[in-house]
Amino acid sequence: MFTIGLLNAQEKSVSATFENTSLKEAILELERQSGSYFYFLDEWLADKNVTASFIDEPLSSALVKILDESDLNFYITDKKNKVFLLKNTLVYDELPKDFFGKARDSIGREPTATPIGLRPPPVFFNDEVRQKKREQEVIAIGKADRTSSQTSFELSGRAINTESGEPISDLAIRVRGANQVTITDQNGNYKLKLPPGYHVLSASAMGIEDAEREIIIYNDGTLDLYLEEGVEQLKEVVVEADAASNVEDAVTGSEKIESEQSKNIPLVLGERDILQVAKTLPGISSAGEGASGINVRGGKTDQNLILLDDAIIYNPTHFFGIFQALNPFATEGVNIYKGSVPVEFGGRLSSVFDIRTKNGNVEKFSGEGSIGPVTGNLALEIPIEKEKSSLVVGARGAYADWILRSLDDESLNNRNASFFDGIVKYHHRIDDNNEIKATGYYSRDDFSITSDSLYHYSNGLASIRWDHKLNDKTNRVLFVGNSDYRFGIDFDGESNTDFELDYGINETQLKYKLRTLLNDRHTLDYGITSKYYSVNPGSKEPNGPESDVQQIEIDREQAFEAAVFIGDQFKVSDKLLVDVGLRYAFFAALGSGSQRTYSEGQPKNEATVRDTVQYGSGEVIKTYGGPEIRVSGRYFLRPDLSVKASFNNAYQFVHTLSNNTTVSPIDTWKLSDLNIRPQTGYQASLGLYKNFNDNMYELSLEGYFKRMDDVLDFKTGANLFLNRNVETEILQGEGKAYGIEFLLKKKRGKFNGWLGYTYSRSFYKFDSDFSEERINNGEFFPSNFDKPHDVSLISNYRITRRYSISMNFVCQTGRPVTYPIGTFRFNNSDFVFYSDRNKFRIPDYYRLDIGVNIEGNHRKNKLAHSFWTISVYNVLGRNNPYSVFFVTEAGEVKALQSSIFAIPVPSITYNFKF
């Protein structure tokens, strides 16, 4: 409601119609008709237009209409017909009732305990405030309203890097003199609730110069913070923001890794790799060195949702999992959720890896790259429209054949491998309320590990996202994306058996989500998401007219998945914050195709087939679904110490089919259908989080328990690929995992890094009335990636501004394996008798890496800034076994082990930035 000034009983009536008329013209017209004298500054009326109409209305009423959309008020004197326009504020010509009978604070406001519903007092300023106003600019927010009963107002806006035009996430914005702080989200948005009057806001983040803004808040309003990049000493500030987030958020089991963090961590062959860095954090590991896939809190590799700019990426690795398939210079970072998962995500049981790419520099052309022993990387940031839009183009290629020749495996010495990936991202900020982001990505690997076969696999995705601010309280996001994963084998043998083999999975996703700040206690997240799957389960075709191979093509699979979700972050009190959410997931397997039915209560095999049902195109074969609960909470024991707890359950409708020990590039994905049920599971966690020594250190201790049902395993010797009835080879059982995770971080200073320790167990159980569907007599057994003890020490010491040294030390329990424990003879042939599944373990794994970073001089005016990274991976030359296998020689069974990197691997990489 508009606030008017003192009404003059004898003010004149005016009549006018304005259609997109400049505000100054309108004011002058009212001045002419009323005979009053108007006082204002021209700059207040600049770039303001008005549309209004009134006939014989009092001057004050006309002013209400034409000033309604502006930040101007007015005051009409009762003498000499003078009208004063006022910027934001009001003129009070009498004091509130009981003014002298109430205590005032330092700037003249009434106590905050004023009952809600009473009119708030006017804002008065003492001499100290007036002096501050004279010394520097004070920003006025909102327009005073005499009739308002609010005791606090909402200030919102975005934090933006003035050099690059990118939003600044994780910026800590504090209110001086009040125990109030907010952190900007990934799009730089923030919100604060403030009482009316004078305030000082301070903003700080890593790489951003500390800044202060003095404001006077009269009503709800916006303030965008344009901040300059800072020098290295400001890293201390960002640690405080991250530390506050770690202790204050209600989320359990979350980690955030910036791409820059991998700069000072020595990784294999000098490659910057946020996914390898993630494996040094508690609860995150892989089955072994060089293994594709990630295991999170005892979950299988297919239970992780890995997103690149909101679109799924099925295999984010190159070269058997040794390198990530992401350009490090185009990647901003990753948010990892391994405990409580935000309500908008679903479809996986274990974790979400939300990887974000950079927004390009909107001010000037810039770039970053590296040249190493294996790859060359380059990312360019190209302004399209200054201060509004930009393009990021990244490319990466490998010359990796020499690695295969150096590995400790003679069968690989004469093989070859190569890979490349490319990414393009367009970012356009249309206005303060609208932003568009579009990403395109493609990667491909080609490798030959035998003389007659060429393997290849590829990832592709395209996505577009529209961020729109509906109003001061609600933001919405509309996202459309498509992801594609394919692999193939080209076989060229000596006989007429040449063939081409192909597999592919494609999904298209639509998501619409909103966030509404209801008030200072409730923030709602809600929306809908849907996916369409199309799977080519495999085809095999003869390669050339002389090939005798018969063509095989498995029926295409299709499915539709959808979910609706709503969540509420509820601030119960200053100490208790609760995040509750409900998500309903739905899945429908669709035709066309055929599905077998089997006799009830019997194993699925050829002998128990009851019928084969044909389904038409788009016909529903089978539906699954149910509610998913997301609950987490934080309680402050002290301002720097909190306890958190969470519970969530999930459905997973897609699965990988693999009978390998570790995930392989040629593993296939299978949709749930009539005979394969979706995986389900729940997880509960409880933890303590503390920051101490002026937020220099961060400490967390978290325990969890996870239960999984209908997880997949396979019969011994299962034939999974190009099998029309693969359900006859599949077993579905239950799993459980539990553990304790400890993490100690030192976030700033010359010496920094972290120490992580995990004690965890992961078990699976496959029981049945039929022996062919039982494993280990139906009892729980350790999973392939069960590693009870896992220790990681990551450290970096900065000697000078140009020189630093870093070290990694990793120690893990050896993973489980199955050993032969005897032989027997049958029909004049020798056979091996194996132990129970995963009864033994390979030797423990440990590795030490060291690295040295040498930065170029820090002169400002130079073509490019550069630094060298010199590292040695596996300094101790530890022959860590990747796998153990057995051969029979001269009637004896012998155990052999294979290793990926059995010797120290040195590397030197040149990095540059301009």
Describe the structure.
There is one protein chain. With 914 residues, the chain is mainly beta. Helices cover 6% and strands 53% of the residues. The protein has a 22-stranded antiparallel β-barrel. The protein has a five-stranded mixed β-sheet with strand order 6-12-11-8-9. α1 packs antiparallel against α3. The chain is elongated. The two termini are 52 Å apart. The relative contact order is 0.08. Residues 1-9, 102-135 and 231-243 have low confidence and may be disordered.
Task: Itemize the secondary structure elements and their pairings.
Blueprint: E1 13-22, H1 23-34, E2 37-39, H2 42-45, E3 49-58, H3 59-67, E4 72-76, E5 82-87, H4 127-135, E6 139-141, E7 153-161, E8 172-175, E9 181-183, E10 189-194, E11 197-205, E12 208-217, E13 221-222, E14 225-227, H5 235-248, E15 254-258, H6 274-278, E16 284-285, E17 295-296, E18 304-308, E19 311-312, E20 317-318, E21 323-324, E22 331-337, E23 351-357, E24 366-371, E25 375-385, E26 389-398, H7 401-406, E27 416-431, E28 434-450, E29 453-469, E30 474-491, E31 499-517, E32 522-542, E33 552-553, E34 557-571, E35 576-590, E36 593-598, E37 609-615, E38 620-638, E39 641-652, E40 654-657, E41 668-671, E42 679-692, E43 697-714, E44 730-746, E45 751-765, E46 781-782, E47 789-798, E48 803-812, E49 816-817, E50 820-826, E51 829-834, E52 840-841, E53 845-855, E54 865-873, E55 881-889, E56 892-899, E57 905-913
Parallel strand pairs: 2-5, 6-12, 7-13, 7-14, 18-23
Antiparallel strand pairs: 1-3, 4-5, 7-10, 8-9, 8-11, 11-12, 15-22, 16-17, 18-19, 20-21, 22-23, 24-25, 24-57, 25-26, 26-27, 27-28, 28-29, 29-30, 30-31, 31-32, 32-33, 32-34, 34-35, 35-38, 36-37, 38-39, 39-42, 40-41, 42-43, 43-44, 44-45, 45-46, 45-47, 47-48, 48-53, 49-52, 50-51, 53-54, 54-57, 55-56
